[in-house]
Specification:
- It contains 14 helices and 19 strands.
- It has 433 residues and is an alpha/beta fold.
- It folds into two domains: 109 residues, Urease, subunit C, domain 1, CATH 2.30.40.10; 306 residues, Metal-dependent hydrolases (TIM Barrel, Alpha-Beta Barrel), CATH 3.20.20.
- Strands 1, 2, 3, 4, 5, 16, 17, 18 and 19 form a nine-stranded mixed sheet that branches.
- α4 packs across α7 and α7 packs parallel to α8.
- The radius of gyration is 21 Å and the shape is globular.
- The two termini are 26 Å apart.
- The structure holds zinc ion.
Length: 433
Amino acid sequence: MAADLVISGGRLVVPADTAEPVDVVVSGGRIAAVVPFGEAPQAQRTLDASDAWVMPGFVDIQVHFRTPGGTDSEDIASGAAGAAMGGVTACVMMPNTTPPIDTPDMVRDVMAIAAAAPCDVRTSAAITAGRAGERLADLPALYRVGVRVFTDDGDCVADDALMAAALEATTELPGAVISQHAEDPAMVAGGVINAGAVAERLGVQGRPAHAEVSVVHRDIELARRTGGRYHVLHLSTAAAMELVAEAKRDRVAVTAEVTPQHLVLTEDDVERLGTTAKMNPPLRLASDVTALRRAIVDGSLDAVATDHAPHHPALKDRPLADAPPGMIGVETMASVVWSELVVSGQMSPARFVEVISAAPARIAGIADHGQPISAGSPANVTVFDAAKRWTVQAETLQSRSLNSPWAGRTLPGRVRHTVLAGRPVVVGSELSD
Ligand SMILES: [Zn+2]
């Protein structure tokens, strides 16, 4: 057996938790074999995975890499570098760029840039032409150039008939999904942060929880009626989560993701963090956090995704009402989720892999990622050192922007190596060339 690479001495989570360390043998971009530690054949290169978990590479299905039109804040190279450092081997960019990604030519243009990235960067495309919410983009043509996720993210598709038509279209496009930024535009117009005590104290207009709940409710009914596939981006409220859980019991084709920040932070953090903690949908209440944490553990919610939303410091250095919404997170996702949910004992390592790798890959139709560490799987692998502690410093993250809510936090769990299609792209927690 000729080996290009051996990932040596780590412990597996999937397909089964191995108490004994193993060697993962990689050849031709795929996992050739998994053998007991020390029994791998000679390889061109060996990565030390001792005292660490060997996991399927992480998958982040909601990132904003600001290409084209916003590259002062981020570009595909800097975004993908952060992804790789965070153990993310595949990600899906949102199409709310300038101009928006809504034609096959635009998809080809950004995918050509992404080809050189140290991460398998995919793009979604807009549901409506120009993200204007008036008529559908050419979804079949976008599908033919590889798009599986359709979204007007940043904006909600508010029109009932248009949303029904989009969902209907996915029934003819196997694996395609309509991803909704679920906030009713009329209800959140002028809103800055969660409608609640903090907004009142700060004297800014709020974005009510009901703006999310009403859209999720409507969309589930449309998905039920059309048979289309529906995904809720960055779900933020307990009430919307309950609707998703109920729809799953009814076998409606619905999935939902939650961000690390919505699993940890609340509206109170806006007073501490300022504009960094401003995002849409907004940080909510402690009761929402509790419900969402329970739901991502019990399967009512499917996946974690970051909504990695870089904004140049000059853009965030404005009054709360004027600063753009969003925070960065692709590089810190795994450490935050591990720290908050696995270390606390709420979530098993196997469920961690499910929500951060397998489920998001399935939702976004990314077949080569999220596979178990076993012979035949593509070698998209992350070695995660759960014992390693590190302190997040916004300046040393790969992003061109600094708007991390985790800056200054010391987190347990750090990505040691990231392997993309058999190629080490991060080695020893540093980017490799
Ligand atoms: Zn969004």
